[in-house]
Input
Amino acid sequence: MTIRDNLYFSQLPFDAPYSAHKILIADDDDHSRSLLEAMLDEDGHEVIAATDGRQIPGLIAEHKPDLVLLDVMMPGETGFAICRALKTDPKLRQIPVILVTGLSNNSDRLLGSEVGADEFLTKPIRRAELMARVRALLRLRDYSKELEEAETVLFTLAKGIEAKDPFTEGHCERMSRYAVMLGQAAGLPEEQLTALRRGGMVHDIGKLAVPEEILLKPGALDDHERRIMMEHPAAGAAICAPMRSFHNVLPIIRHHHERMDGSGYPDGLTGNQIPVTARILAIIDVYDAVTVERPYKAAFTVERAIEILRQDAAKGWWDSGLVEEWAGLILSARLEPRSEMIEAARREVAGA
Ligand SMILES: [Fe+2]
Output
């Protein structure tokens, strides 16, 4: 029996045309726009057409297209300006953009690359070339959409754990923001900052495996309960392990309770054996825990929190270089407006 004889697989549309997507075409030339529309329509896509660059933001907000095809020369806004606006907007930059340029116009291509275009097509457009580019970009778009959805599920689960304890409200978002701030200050590359943003949100997701009576116990935990609680980093890493895009996040989840002197868990790593991203999250976790109010204690001031972090770093728990980096960010005039996040965190810390 082949796979296609199998009842389940036989119901899948193996021979169906490539699945439909929404494609926005922006071209003021009626002839070339209709030609593009016809080609994409024939491939089963839903086409939205614009004739003026100024219509595009509204059409994108209304239709949420999966791909945008822009002629570089249009009334209102040029294709370059629209592409730049799309690629600098964190909510829209995932939408692939194809720029349609004049034949062999190298300066257009150069500028197009600078504004972040994903692909180029030259006029006159040939059907085979258009379809090949469109299909390749839509496949990537589908893949990144799936990842976004999976990430949303994980973030929702993590926030569900946070919601069980009203005193930890906003902890995940703060962790995410502060960890990225410290990562930036430490000069980490973009992929590690992304890992910190995600890790800040999901680092405690393994608490899903911890019974509520332990998770929410008001008093101190006994040895048995503490042992169960200490399983949450490994459990969290196991939950997120199947997600390939979380590859850099797994070490953060697993090692965010390690200490520089090896007295942490789950693996008792020491010094630089602990990934820098996990060392950052460990510091931020303590900082956030002591600067929020709990039923049994008032919120510590920023100065007191830094003092505690410095004392613990001196004991051999935290990376003292990173603690000083964080102290510098939070306490001193180094809070220059290089990052909006720093300003936002500063306002939040000041209670504004
Ligand atoms: Fe934790």
About this structure: Residues 203-204, 232, 256-257 surround fe (ii) ion (CB under 6 Å). Strands lie at 22-26, 46-50, 67-71, 97-101, 119-122.
